[in-house]
């Protein structure tokens, strides 16, 4: 097999950065090979992908030294549009690559953009939809999809271009177990088609039978190179020392928290310390009205995106919120913190009711896409913004706890996905709200930082905060969740004791 990707003695420093990220990196990838890039957040994995798809140096500016050759193209001298049919990329944040407003249009956008005949476009779309089992997502608005569903559409749109090389940046970060299995099938299909696949990933377990080769990165350098079988046979202690997520543990308990109907439900006693939720009804399908808004009633059950008449949550605890993609976890969190104005819900704490704007006063939410809530020009300023009164000493303490103290003067948008997540978590800690909500806080984090986040969530609960964390990571639940709440089609179907 010939080398389809050749990176020769490459060093790169992003414009505006005080130090280089990649340091004299050399890497060759053979045609048809499936390669896994792993390593801590900020180690350079995404930068490698940006070199291969040409975003460096044509979009992300900086000082690039060395040679990058992809499928015979010298990246420095090749325009991005010339690589469109050669390299396809599924980004960590799929919204950043969408061009349409609906799923059908997004799937065929690439083939349309390169001017394929209508019949070819239809055939490609039909094949992709069948291979990736996307029938339930057809005819949907992209704005109504969950994070995992958006990721699936992004994979489909790339697949429709039939590229020689497929790059995936944290493709499973927002997916539930069933969706990960479908993603694995998609990768297997690409593999049988002879495509070269390069995956930057923190979740490792599902790639065991797919990956031919594993590259470990640390601080911008290649520090490990194994055959796939050799890597997945490494002892658990070795994997932990590399700050990687477990390669085996998820298979042992991954189903325990995503299907809890058979587990004994936890009943909150009347004299227990709890937060009560009442009349949490919400629908994305707006009801027509002329003079006043009609409240939801039993007849609305079929259109409700959230249908929780009453729910008691233990106070001062970490509660994992689980469920499949699109089942209502994020909607539940948004309604709980008062972001959805049409939600009829009330929060009752110690006999005091909070509704609407008052819910915003007692809660703080870290969104799944943290780019929506990063506003300032430095990490330090971002954390200080969340405080009622600026307290730089407390700010520095939080940044140190989350491993961000060395980045406090950096612009938040210049950070990696995992680093941005930690900045948002730092802002939540600084806000001082009674209820703290986290939507997939570890989706872009390596194992070491996941452990740190779990520790911080426990500390928040120990400081009289009620913490709800929507997650697909069973490792996180095992590390810190006192209780597990399952959401299924907008309903709270059960709450059980966790593993923490």
UniProtKB/TrEMBL annotation:
CDD domains: ABC_cobalt_CbiO_domain1
Main location, first listed in the record: membrane
Membrane topology field: Peripheral membrane protein
Pfam families in the cross-refs: ABC_tran
Keyword Membrane belongs to the record: yes
Subcellular compartments: Cell membrane
Keywords, comma-separated and alphabetical: ATP-binding, Cell membrane, Membrane, Nucleotide-binding, Repeat, Translocase, Transport
Residue ranges of every copy of the ABC transporter domain listed in the record: 5-244, 275-500
GO cellular component terms, semicolon-separated: ATP-binding cassette (ABC) transporter complex
Entry GO MF terms: ATP binding; ATP hydrolysis activity; ATPase-coupled transmembrane transporter activity
Signal sequence range: none
Statement: the UniProt record of this protein carries the keyword Hydrolase: no
Known role: Probably part of an ABC transporter complex. Responsible for energy coupling to the transport system.
Family assignment from sequence similarity: Belongs to the ABC transporter superfamily.
Full protein name: Energy-coupling factor transport system ATP-binding protein
């Amino acid at each position: 097999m010939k080398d389809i990707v050749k990176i020769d003695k490459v060093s790169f420093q992003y414009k505006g950065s005080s130090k280089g990220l990649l340091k004299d990196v050399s890497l060759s990838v053979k045609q048809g090979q499936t390669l896994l890039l792993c390593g801590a957040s900020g180690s350079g994995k995404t930068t490698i992908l940006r070199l291969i798809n040409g975003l460096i140096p044509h979009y992300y500016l900086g000082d690039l030294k060395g040679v990058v050759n992809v499928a015979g193209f010298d990246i420095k001298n090749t325009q991005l549009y010339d690589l469109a049919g050669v390299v396809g990329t599924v980004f960590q944040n799929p919204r950043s690559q969408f061009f349409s407003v609906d799923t059908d249009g997004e799937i065929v956008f690439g083939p349309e953009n390169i001017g394929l005949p209508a019949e070819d476009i239809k055939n490609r779309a039909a094949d992709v939809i069948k291979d990736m089992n996307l029938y339930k997502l057809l005819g949907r608005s992209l704005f109504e999809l969950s994070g995992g569903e958006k990721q699936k559409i992004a994979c489909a749109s790339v697949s429709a271009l039939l590229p020689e090389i497929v790059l995936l940046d944290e493709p499973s970060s927002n997916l539930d177990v069933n969706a990960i299995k479908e993603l694995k099938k998609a990768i297997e299909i690409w593999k049988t088609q002879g495509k070269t696949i390069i995956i930057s990933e923190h979740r490792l377990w599902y790639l065991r039978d797919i990956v031919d080769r594993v590259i470990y990165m640390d601080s911008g350098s290649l520090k490990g190179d194994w055959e796939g079988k050799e890597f997945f046979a490494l002892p658990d202690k070795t994997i932990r020392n590399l700050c990687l997520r477990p390669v085996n543990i998820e298979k042992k308990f991954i189903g325990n928290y995503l299907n809890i109907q058979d587990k004994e439900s936890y009943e909150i006693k009347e004299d227990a310390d709890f937060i009560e939720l009442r009349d949490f009804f919400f629908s994305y399908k707006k009801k027509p009205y002329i003079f006043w808004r009609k409240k939801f009633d039993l007849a609305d059950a079929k259109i409700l995106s959230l249908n929780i008449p009453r729910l008691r949550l233990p106070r001062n605890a970490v509660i994992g919120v689980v469920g499949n993609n699109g089942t209502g976890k994020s909607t539940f969190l948004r309604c709980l913190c008062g972001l959805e104005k049409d939600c009829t819900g009330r929060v009752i704490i110690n006999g005091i009711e909070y509704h609407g704007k008052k819910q915003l006063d007692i809660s703080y939410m870290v969104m799944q896409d943290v780019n929506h809530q990063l506003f300032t020009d430095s990490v330090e300023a971002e954390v200080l913004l969340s405080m009622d009164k600026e307290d730089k000493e407390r700010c520095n303490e939080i940044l140190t706890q989350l491993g961000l103290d060395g980045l406090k003067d950096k612009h938040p948008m210049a950070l990696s996905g995992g680093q941005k997540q930690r900045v948002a978590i730092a802002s939540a800690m600084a806000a001082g709200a009674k209820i703290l909500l986290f939507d997939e806080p570890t989706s872009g984090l390596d194992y070491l930082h996941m452990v740190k986040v779990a520790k911080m969530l426990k500390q928040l609960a120990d400081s009289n905060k009620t913490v709800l964390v929507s997650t697909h990571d069973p490792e996180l639940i095992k590390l810190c969740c006192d209780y597990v709440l399952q959401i299924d089609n907008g309903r709270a179907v059960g709450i059980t004791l966790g593993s923490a």
